[in-house]
Design brief:
DNA polymerase, domain 1; two-stranded antiparallel ribbon; hpI Integrase, Chain A
């Protein structure tokens, strides 16, 4: 059978015997197809479910191309652009959230109110997580809109949900001592260094001995480990040189007896004598139990970074220097996040936490 559909010439076969009655049935089917096309109700997949031509044509129509197909195609097109950690996040969003919820809908059927109502029902997820889940869907619809596949983009009417920054709640000197007293060996070295270096957990578990410069009392941040994969810093300011504070230096000297001879990653999981694979297991097995035993109010490990910044600023360190130590491109973030720890009359000297 030969017919024209969506401006394309189509040729399809149909299993009919080569008899007079068979040719008559084939002619009747062709007339049915032509009638459905003229009425705008032709369903290619219904008549020819295994047709490659049909599948290609359906993908050119927003009312037949499903969101599930669109998301899978979008992921294939863009997978090579992203790092492994980002890919894992998008996979989770697409296959765990978006396709189960919207996958069967045609691209043209999605409305802004459907997405908003769905987001409102995700009670257990943070606004930041909800925003991240929408990224693949937003990018798919943006591509389809720019390619004139759809006439309007419903995602343009959905704003990202407000995200409150993590409020600094630094630990006091007394709390630090209590926490460290509940740790020993490599675990104590790890968190003592964390409190006095300002590194993110992903940077701590990726720190290598080759990046420690004891002679010049400094170390370099060049990489991070995310989802078990080592990668470079996200921004130019992320690559930085940090002054070794006395407590951080002592933690490294103590740690050298455990892993220094291996000439690789500084901090290891003592139970396996291997570098930490990620921050989740460290938080669950070491950090949380230590805070519980010390009876210190729970805060996430990231607060060790806030502690470092607040201690530097409270001692009168230059905010721009602190920003450099923290990996910020300027001191605007320091002023916004840690403003209450900046003395009215800032000290202009010193680069170490003494006492």
């Amino acid at each position: 059978m030969t017919f024209t559909y969506l401006g394309k010439r189509c040729r399809e076969t149909h299993p009919q015997p080569s008899t007079k009655s068979g040719w008559k049935l084939l002619e009747q089917k062709l007339q049915t197809i032509l009638f459905e096309i003229s009425m705008g109700i032709f369903d290619y997949s219904k008549h020819f479910p295994n047709s490659k031509k049909g599948k290609m044509l359906l993908k050119s129509r927003a009312d037949f191309y499903t969101i599930a197909e669109g998301l899978k195609d979008w992921f294939k097109r863009n997978e090579s652009r992203y790092e492994k950690s980002t890919i894992q996040g998008y996979k989770s969003a697409i296959f765990y959230h978006l396709i189960p919820q919207f996958g069967l809908l045609a691209i043209s059927d999605l409305t802004a109110i459907q997405v908003k109502e769905w987001l409102a029902g995700l009670k257990r997820l943070s606004n930041k997580r909800k925003n991240n889940i929408l990224i693949p869907l937003r990018q798919l619809y943006e591509e389809l809109y720019l390619d004139s596949f759809i006439e309007k983009n419903p995602l343009e009417r959905i704003r990202n949900l407000p995200v409150s920054p993590r409020e600094p709640e630094p630990f006091t000197r007394t709390e630090i001592e209590k926490i460290l007293s509940q740790l020993e060996g490599q675990e104590r070295n790890f968190f003592q260094f964390a409190f006095w270096s300002g590194l993110r957990t992903s940077e701590l578990i990726a720190l290598a001995w080759q990046d420690i410069d004891f002679e010049n009392n400094r170390f370099y941040v060049r990489q991070a480990k995310v989802n078990g994969v080592l990668k470079g810093a996200k921004t130019k300011s992320g690559y930085r040189t940090i002054t070794l504070q006395p407590e951080a230096k002592q933690a490294l000297l103590n740690q050298f007896t455990y892993t220094g001879s291996l000439n690789e990653i500084v901090f290891h999981d003592s139970r396996k004598n291997q570098p930490w694979k990620g921050d989740q297991i460290l938080r669950k097995t070491i950090w949380t139990p230590a805070l519980k035993r010390s009876e210190v109010k729970y805060r996430e490990p990231y607060q060790t970074r806030h502690t470092f910044a607040s201690m530097l600023l409270s001692r009168g360190e230059e905010p721009m220097w602190v920003a450099d130590q923290m990996g910020h491109k300027d001191w605007g973030m320091i002023r916004k996040t840690y403003g209450r720890w900046i003395p009215t009359h800032e000290s202009q000297g010193g680069t170490a936490l003494n006492g």
